[in-house]
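Blackboard transcription, Thursday session:
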Amino acid sequence: MRLKAAIVVFPGSNCDRDCARAWEFVTGGKASFVWHKESSMEDCDVVILPGGFSFGDYLRSGAIARFSPVMAEVARLAKRGSLVLGICNGFQILTEAGLLPGSLIRNSGLKYVCKDVFVRVENVSSPFTGRYEEGQVLRIPISHGEGNYNAPGDVLERLRDEGRVVLRYSDPSGRVGPDTAPNGSADSIAGVLGEGGNVLGIMPHPERVSDRQLGGTDGAAFWESMVDSLRVKGIRV
Amino acid sequence: MKFKATVRVMPKPSVLDPQGAALERALRTMGGEGVGSVRVGKRIEIVLDGPGEAEVMELVARWADQLLANPNMETFGLELVALDEA
Amino acid sequence: MSEEALEDKWSEHGLTEEEYKRLLRILGRQPNYLELALFGVMWSEHCCYKHSKGELRKLPTEAHFVLQGPGENAGIVDVGEGVGVVFKIESHNHPSAIEPYQGAATGVGGIIRDIFTMGARPAAILDSLRFGPLEGHRVKGLLNGVVAGIGGYGNCMGIPNVGGETFFHPAYSGNPLVNAMCVGFVDTNRVFRGRATGPGNLVLLVGSRTGRDGIKGASFASVELSDSDPDKRHNVQVGDPFMEKLVMEATLEILENGLAVGVQDLGAAGLTCSGCEMASRGRSGIALDLDLVPLREDGLLDWEIMLSESQERMLMVVEPGKLDRVRAICDKWDVPCTAIGKVTDDDCFVLRRGQKVLAVVPSVFLTDKAPAYQPPMSEPPSYQPLKKADVGLAGKIQDIPGLLKKLLASPNIASKRWVYEQYDCTVGANTVLAPSGDAAVLRIPGTRKGLAVTCDCNSRFVALDPYWGTAMAVAEAALNVAVTGARPLAITNCLNFGSPENPEVFWQFSKAVDGLAEAARRLGTPITGGNVSFYNEYDGVPVYPTPVIGMVGVMDDVDNRVPHHFRKEGDHVFLVGRSLEEFGGSELHWLLAGRDEGHVPFLNLDFAARLNAFLADCAKLRYLESAHDCSEGGLAVALLESAATLGLGVSLDWADNISPAAALFGETCSRALVSVSPEKLGQFMGYLQDFNLPHTQLGRVAGDGLISVRYNGAGLLHEELKGLLGLWEGALAGMAGI
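(Written on the board underneath:)
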């Protein structure tokens, strides 16, 4: 079966074309764009919610986007078991929509931050991270004003216990500490997996480091991992 | 004496409120056909000790003018309530 | 209205009595109030360049690769393979002084619109900022607000901010400068211009509703700032970057489908300026119905509607048959779109409400027939004495390490990381070199090519010598492009000066334009457009003359780009160019004496051109590991900047016939600090001979984390790189926090 990948575009999404390019460059497959007003989607195997400022990030990042008609379809596909990846604003939308726990609030330093950071891959059994090694440190850019991950204590504990924290901010050697999160995120959390294991939200931007010409390829394995996990089910690019 | 001052900061009527405009459009798609306009502001609550109502009002008004509201774009309203010292 | 009643009205609209008389002569009758308002704004400095257009005619603007020169929304150069680079720089100084966040944000919004209105997708932003000394609540507030505003707008629109400059100096106290540059790519077969043609075609207003924003902003920009006008805060323009993102996507989609005849964004003087200019350029007329303009609030008067500077609005001229498709695209993006008028064949700018005619003025009266002045100019009495001032003090200093540390921690030399980390520099996935010590480099989509882009001006040099200082700004911009491996192509300029009615200021302006023209000619980089901002003064004291040069360059293969930073231990370090004993206008002299004085460094434009060609060739031949321009703070600062990225030190030992201070901190022009792999050394040195370029072999890149410099047999520096970097990287954050 042919792998169908879709990138949802909201008014204000900025990284949709970047994701499409990275997906095509790394996997050879073409991703289609789905406008937020669509109320029905094909049964895609991969759904990407890209970064940007959907609805200007007004009120709260992702707060308005979660009511777009397309989100009912995203929820349906998540339930069906499709791979749903939310990057940056995509992560924020998924938390507002209740498809991932917790919320992303204003960076603790109160300023927008764009720079390369280091993240440690904590869980390599997710369909998004199979190609990484456990504990591998990636160099990957962040760019956000509201990337501070927050959740009630019991939720954080559950995420820890269930191994659903997929990425943590670290120092170059992989040490995670109270000082390693550039935005104040609880537990240095940079990426979280949903209950079903098929929905992932991450703040860093893998699509910006999937091509050597752009200065790094540490992000390429996200796309490759997703393709791997689908190939096992007979779904190919 | 203990007081609670509430400062309500709103955008000036003639200044563009992009947040309000975006919310206005969003609410109209959520069953809000009757929505006329939306404007978004802030509410700041300050609990403080002071000698008396008049002095505290003057102090908070000064804070509002200098810091809490941006006089280029915002107006503010003030409310002061004495709190029981329990 | 009788002549007496209008008597005081013309000054209210920013016109002089002479200008009013000119108006009467040209129009052949008295204008009514609305017509007077139209003339007032179209004949203001900001809209008609009355004091500068005479001088600007001196600038070289043509070349076979220039597709669009000055006169349109932006300039365009052809870079081959069907791609045009659309670019321009503009100022938003006065609004930023009053309301830093929104002033800077709307400045960015405005320049972005100038790019996509031509059919180009904006690809990058740069900004050039100048403030008073970084101390005290006010300047910190300005700095924080302006940087947050630029970031807030650009980041939301998904356009990367890849470079710029930030400078602090008493000359800018009270009148900060905020210049924003934007660059985009266009299909050369699909360029759109701001002209109204085809009588009967519809004029559409696309984007935000019209309110009272910035009324009289255009004439406001032509009035000096002083504390006595606190109610100039009235009607601040607020930017809505989300709306602009929608307007941009809708506009690009409309243009991609060939659905518009002409497009123009609304900026200074709003509907008036855009409408008149479109009609004038199209040699046609435009008739607008004010009843049809969607308003944000009730009760706007006629002139308020016409002068409103509400943001995020576009005018589009569309054939009636294409209206439905245009509306469909606007509906998809939830962008308001309203037909407000028609193109006519009577060459007039006509305003009405329904059937009632409110104003009729031939378009060219408002544009081409605007006044033009050749103001008097006189050399400031301080000019010659300042040049002759003795700046030899610097040459005698002994404590090299101490001085280096002071310089590294000074706001103008310190790392600008605190600024650029608030800007998204990689969105769009085309940024290959940024932020950088020199020009930023982007890949050009659909090709193998790379685009280098920078904006520069050393205003100390311009203040001391407007002619040579401006030529040096051009040379520096070109060198910043060349060190990345690109060929400098063309210029956009933002000329920031005091009042042109001050003969000394106008003398500076005229000399600066002369220097710009000469350097542009000799370096082969024509001017494709730009902006003049006059009246930058505070309490009657003008700012330093500040001609900011935005430059673009191109390389045929983006993989040949050369970074500014050292890459590995053992590489050979060279200084290409010659260093002289000169400190005039340098950061070092300012540090020691607290004054800008002396002769500016010597510039040889032919040498500069040769150096640029050499560097572009070396990049193609892959001779260089790194190349970095030496500018403020001299060689020592360039060394540190090259060492910082990978934490590689240097071990240098060389001799020359200038003082140690001159060798390390002198700001001689046209010098590049390069590093070369041992395998390429022979070829590189041979090429240096072929080009006959003076050069010095300084030493090697070291892996021991030390900056070790021996000069003329004596040890000058033996410092831990880590300590120096700590000072350099931490300084601005420490000083900028409120």
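Lecturer's comment: Chain A is about 20% helix and 25% strand.
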